[in-house]
Amino acid sequence: MSGSGTEQESGPERSGEPTPSPSSTPAPPRRKFPRGLAGAVAVTVLLVLYVVQIAGRGASMIGTGEPVLIAIGLGVLIIPLLVIGLIAREYWLAATVQRMADTLFAEGNLPVDDLPRSPGGRIDRAAADEAFEPHRAAVEAAPEDWRAWYHLAFAYDASGDRRRAREALRRAAKFFRPARLTRSS
């Protein structure tokens, strides 16, 4: 390169590569290992190590025969098991939400985040509230449609109501019945 300023940048149309047509459908997103999942797995592994350590102490407390230590030992065993159950429930929800997203992607029906934002990146509340109404109406029209609940969840999230967004995702997961592969003989 001579730096004379007369050279043009090479792009797909200059390098001989075909220019993608605007009507072509986008390729499905590549599966990447989600960053959040790595953190969740790390915390879960730490929790399992904690439960193993605590289970031994709880068992030894129960083995003393002292009523107070037996009660404490049972509590030490039950509370971590409850936490593990809640974590398993969250993993199940995450996996189901991903399957729903994959299904909606294949149908070309994923929610689109096109709401106006402030210069700081926050979604305009009035626009989010206005965009919310059609999703609420869709759920009222078809209360057992998982797609309507899925879209409503993202409308709740855009409106800043994370608690209701999670409830709507749980409801969508309840109604979601993925297509099963059937074998023909």
UniProtKB/TrEMBL annotation:
Residues 19-28 have a biased composition (Pro residues). Coiled coil: none annotated. Signal peptide: none annotated. InterPro entries: TPR-like_helical_dom_sf. Residues 1-32 are annotated as: Disordered. The keyword Cell inner membrane does not apply. SUPFAM superfamilies: TPR-like (SSF48452). Keywords: Membrane, Transmembrane, Transmembrane helix. This is Tetratricopeptide (TPR) repeat protein. It comes from Promicromonospora sukumoe.
